[in-house]
Amino acid sequence: MTTTPSSAPRGRLSPRLYLFTPALGEPAAFADKLAAVLDVGEVAAILLRLQDTDERTLVNRAKAVAAIAQPRGVALLLDGRAEIAARAGADGAHLDGIEALTAAIGALKPESIAGAGGLKSRHDAMLAAESGADYVMFGEPDRNGHHPPFEAVIERIGWWAEVFEVPCVGYAGDLDEVSALAQAGSDFIALGDWLWTQEAAPSALVAAAAKYLGEPASPAVSK
Prior knowledge:
Elements: E1 16-24, H1 28-38, E2 43-50, H2 55-69, E3 75-79, E4 92-96, H3 98-108, E5 113-117, H4 122-131, E6 135-138, H5 150-163, E7 168-172, H6 178-184, E8 188-191, H7 202-212
Parallel strand pairs: 1-2, 1-8, 2-3, 3-4, 4-5, 5-6, 6-7, 7-8
């Protein structure tokens, strides 16, 4: 995830996708579905969410997912768990909140990616960038599943893209939000674990999302 962002008026590149996994136990049953999604293309990274278990099992499960993602050129980031990222062969970790980021960043940088989410204010986002985060994420649900208002997410992304060089990830709560997030200035668009619970195949949803990247936002998605 090394894109250098700039605002839409400066002619930035079209965003790429960043996928959340469900909270996984044994990943073998998920492997074929994940491979099919990553083969669609346009996916830059996946955020691997693992169910709690002992550390050795976590490392082995992350390695199994890395073996699917990384040969396809997709970065594997762990949801937290920065302490096992290197041993698991992950490309880095996504940290929730400034405190978690600052506690983990020394163990991750410079070899690994340190992503920042759970940023509740502009000040938090600026602190994350100053602390060395490789990207900031806006709009993702908190641990209780609560989303910030979509209009506020769009505003935050537009402000960030105009001012800062650190890439930003815009979280899409559904497929209809992808185009608006791209137009606002997101460098990456995150598709949450809702991707895996729809009637449509996840690979079909990813293909549809990829078609929206760089397209003008329609009134239907300007929430």
